[in-house]
Design brief:
Radius of gyration: 10 Å
Order of helices and strands: H
Largest sheet: none
Number of helices: 1
Number of strands: 0
Shape: elongated
Helix content: 55-70%
């Protein structure tokens, strides 16, 4: 996730990406 969080990735797109990563991580933990 840290690798995707670059300085050039900010704003709504970055937030959407973080939410996607968080939901994906939750699925991995749940599994």
């Amino acid at each position: 996730a840290c690798a995707l969080a670059r300085d050039d990735m900010k704003g709504p797109v970055f937030e959407m990406l973080q939410q996607f990563v968080r939901s994906h991580e939750r699925r991995e933990v749940a599994a």
